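Tokens for YaeQ family protein. Go.
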Amino acid sequence: MALKSTVYKAELQLSDMDRNYYAAHSLTLARHPSETDERMMVRLLAFALNASENLVFARGLSDIEEPDLWLKDYTGAIQQWIEVGQPDERRLLKACGRSEQVLVYSYASNSPIWWQGMGNRLERAKNLTVWNLPVATSQALEKMAQRSMQLQCTIQDGQLWLTDETQTVQVDLISLKQPGGY
């Protein structure tokens, strides 16, 4: 018998002053059996950083043809393809061909090593953005994981703060690649 996903619910109050986007999102996150709380919370962070009415969680781990999150326009064309972790070169190049913008949020302690091996091979991907999340930050986010979460997120001047009932985590992403090159 196959293991089933664990369902998490998050009420996310978002104030993104950098993009003038203010909204409340009721999110359902299906945590794949092979996914950790840390990875799931990085997916939630990726949602907060790119939130819009049409951004949705995709099948990611359970379907190789889909990212972790994506934003499609009304015609079905993919505007944003968002990956969490350390996807391989072929997956990223395919995503770059299918989407206007591809974003990667890496978070593991070996992310710098992963990127050192990948960076030169992905230089031609002009619509790719890669961010690294410090390990201490992703581990602090992991501690916030609950089956039912009430979260407030504030984004201002490129910094993000995620707060629950007991703690606040400041998120400072490290840029590994920006669109058009390094």
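The longest strand covers residues 6-16.
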